[in-house]
Design a protein that fits this description.
Blueprint lengths: L1 H21 L11 E10 L13 E11 L13 E12 L10 E9 L3 E11 L9 H6 L11 E13 L4 E12 L7
Antiparallel strand pairs: 1-2, 2-5, 3-4, 3-6, 6-7
């Protein structure tokens, strides 16, 4: 009978240890005294999503840093957020299945407490990605095989990670739609 009670006593602490590690400190669920948010994402490459150009597609992103407690005294620099990386991934919105490969990039931007920062020229599609499937199909075949369409419509998911100067992890996520195509008059 004692052996039966031993198993839960060993497994329960392991469960709580692992459960605590799985949290990504997603947006407002973090224990940080601030919330990092994506206020806007504006494409800066024109035309955005053109597979005929050999340039990166970029966006302008505005991030805000808000105190969770609106009655808190004036924030100190310890509530400032240092954004240290961003991750890009894609989800199809046109019924297709293949997406461009995602990537993660190191960056360094400060977002002051109760303030905002605008990041210009943030790369969301690298030029080389336009050469490989599925984007390469639009140039080589003129259409994407899973949908038979001359375009590929996606949402670009951008996830930002960083921490406050006091060491609390923070996270923010935003998205922007993109339609990849071999646009005329782009060269």
């Amino acid at each position: 009978m004692k052996k039966i009670w031993l198993l839960p006593m060993v497994l329960l602490p392991l469960f709580y240890l692992c459960w605590g590690c799985t949290g990504q400190n997603k947006e407002a669920s973090t224990i940080a005294p601030v919330v990092l948010s994506v206020d806007s994402i504006i494409p800066t490459t024109s035309p955005f999503g053109d597979v005929r150009t050999n340039v990166d597609d970029t966006v302008e992103v505005t991030l805000s840093n808000h105190l969770k407690d609106p009655d808190a005294t004036s924030p100190t620099h310890f509530a400032d957020v240092i954004v240290t990386s961003y991750r890009v991934s894609f989800t199809r919105t046109d019924g297709g299945t293949d997406v461009p490969s995602g990537f993660e990039q190191a960056i360094t931007y400060r977002v002051p407490a109760n303030g905002s920062t605008t990041i210009t020229g943030l790369v969301v599609v690298k030029a080389y990605q336009k050469l490989y499937e599925p984007l390469g199909y639009l140039m080589s075949l003129g259409y994407e095989p899973s949908t038979n369409l001359p375009t590929i419509s996606c949402n670009i998911i951008i996830e930002f990670t960083g921490e406050t100067e006091a060491g609390y992890k923070v996270y923010a996520k935003g998205s922007v739609p993109i339609t990849f195509a071999a646009y005329p008059d782009s060269q």
